[in-house]
Amino acid sequence: MPTVGQRIKRARTKLNLTQQMLAGRVNVTRVAVSEWERDLSLPRVNKAKMLACVLGLSETELTPLRGAGVVPLTDNGTTHRRVTLEWLELPMIARSNAAVADNDSVPTDTVYQMTIEDTSMSPVFNPGDIISVSPAEIAWDGCQVVVVSSDETTGMLRNYRNRQFGGFDLWPNSPDYPTETIADSSTARIVGVVTSHERFIKRPGA
């Protein structure tokens, strides 16, 4: 699946626009367009609308936060956005979380909804199960977290345990996958804590 940056570049070149020309049409610098196309940053909400118009794309193609909606919380009546997120989009989310106050990043009232794709956390979390992940929660011993590796190529769900003298441990439920000790955030980035789990129910004989 193409990234936001790849979508922008593909649409721009199809229209025979240079980065400078596109920058002029959406009122940003050429450097901003270059960073978008290299997936170093995301377009802000207002710029995503302008880009969609100029490039002939839908606005949802220019943000990894597809399927976002406002959902009332049942415990205190506040609201949050529930965002359907794919595992391939995790590296970009991990980067954008660093600038959480910007319009082009993920607010702390966002909850990610993800579908389990591997068996590393079986038999508790199985392929097809849906989890909700909150970037605002602080991890605690025994919780489950979604993390991205430092090289930003791997996203995974793991059990979490804090280490007394710094860092943390990540371990799977399945013995077929390795346990990892993370010295600091330069080795792996926690995207969020799992706050709910919806189990996939198989039909008999399926």
Helix content: 10-25%
Morphology call: elongated
- Share in β-strands: 25-35%
Average pLDDT, all residues: 79
- The number of helices is 5
Largest sheet: 9 strands, mixed
Give the name of the CATH superfamily of the largest domain: Umud Fragment, subunit A
Main sheet: which strands, in order across?
Answer: 1-2-3-4-9-5-6-7-8
User: What structural class results from the helix and strand content?
Assistant: alpha+beta
CATH topology of the largest domain: Umud Fragment, subunit A
Number of strands: 9
Which stretches of 5+ consecutive residues score pLDDT under 50?
66-76, 98-107
What top-tier CATH class of the largest domain fits best? Mainly Beta
CATH architecture classification name of the largest domain? Ribbon
List keywords for this structure.
206 residues; 434 Repressor (Amino-terminal Domain); Umud Fragment, subunit A; 9-stranded mixed beta sheet; 5 helices
Structure description:
The protein has 206 residues and is an alpha+beta fold. It has 2 domains: 4-62, lambda repressor-like DNA-binding domains (434 Repressor (Amino-terminal Domain)); 69-198, Umud Fragment, subunit A, CATH 2.10.109. Helices cover 22% and strands 26% of the residues. The chain has 5 helices and 9 strands. It has a 9-stranded mixed sheet with strand order 1-2-3-4-9-5-6-7-8. A hairpin with a 6-residue loop joins strand 1 and strand 2 (79-84). The longest helix has 11 residues, at 4-14.
